[in-house]
Structures are given as structure tokens and as C-alpha cells.
Design goal:
Length: 144
């Protein structure tokens, strides 16, 4: 299989835990419900850090002036994500992480010269992640 196909399969498969944790949050009780809530936030931070790291990796071979700012943004985004979960409030962390995903995509689109198929996939995946975060926040607000 090509690396493009593997990237697409892994990318879209990566959405499954987001929605699985939302399902667990809405349908389970007690400890499994709490595990779903914490799992969502921790998984979200892990994926967010992975994407920020990918941004870091993209500029390692670039000698452009923007590479330094991209390295700083990449690190800043990870610190932002960690600070989001340090709020110890799952709903607040989810909102901050969702905003982080949107900022990351915006920044990536501004500076990146990646292939069109990858850019489109990243847009779709970010949309899926944002929808999952909206569902997660909605479950908190409604007390599901």
C-alpha cells in the first residue's frame, strides 16, 4: 500500500476514538463514564501534540525565514494544549483544544506547501475533530 493510502486510513481511523469516547460519555455511568471523559481529553491532547510535531517536522528541511517562527508556533501550540488540560475542567479543556485544532489548521494552511490531497484530508479531519469536540461540550452542557 502507498504511504498516501496509509496516511488516509490512519487519519480517518483516528476520528473513531473521539466519537467512541463521546458515545461512552453519553451512554455509560460511573467509572466507565469518567474514563470516557478523561480518555477524550487525553486522546485529544495526544493527537494535537502529534499534529504540532508534524508541523515541526515539516520545517526541518526548509531554510526559509518562516521556519523559525513555525518552530516557535509548533512548540507554543503544544504548551497551549497542555495548559488546556491543566485547567482540570474537561469541558474547558475541550473548548481550548478545539480552538487549538482550528488555529493549527489555519496556521498550517498559511505556511504549508503540502500536496493538495493532504491539505484536503487535514481540513476534513479537523472538521471531524471539531464536530466531536462540539458534541463533547454539548454533552457537558446538557448533563448527559
Amino acid at each position: 500500500m502507498s504511504s498516501r493510502l496509509i496516511s488516509q486510513l490512519l487519519g480517518y481511523a483516528g476520528l473513531v476514538p473521539f466519537f467512541g469516547f463521546c458515545l461512552g460519555f453519553s451512554s455509560l455511568e460511573d467509572w466507565p463514564r469518567s474514563l470516557s471523559i478523561q480518555g477524550f481529553i487525553i486522546y485529544s491532547l495526544g493527537i494535537f501534540a502529534f499534529l504540532a510535531g508534524a508541523l515541526w517536522g515539516q520545517v526541518q528541511t526548509v531554510k526559509a525565514d518562516g521556519a523559525v517562527s513555525t518552530l516557535i508556533v509548533s512548540n507554543g501550540l503544544v504548551l497551549f494544549g497542555v495548559a488546556a488540560i491543566l485547567t482540570a475542567q474537561a469541558m474547558m479543556a475541550a473548548v481550548f483544544l478545539m480552538l487549538g485544532y482550528m488555529a493549527l489548521l489555519w496556521y498550517e494552511r498559511r505556511i504549508s506547501s503540502l500536496e493538495l490531497w493532504y491539505q484536503r484530508m487535514r481540513q476534513r479531519l479537523t472538521l471531524g475533530v471539531v464536530v466531536a469536540h462540539i458534541i463533547f461540550v454539548g454533552l457537558h452542557v446538557t448533563g448527559a
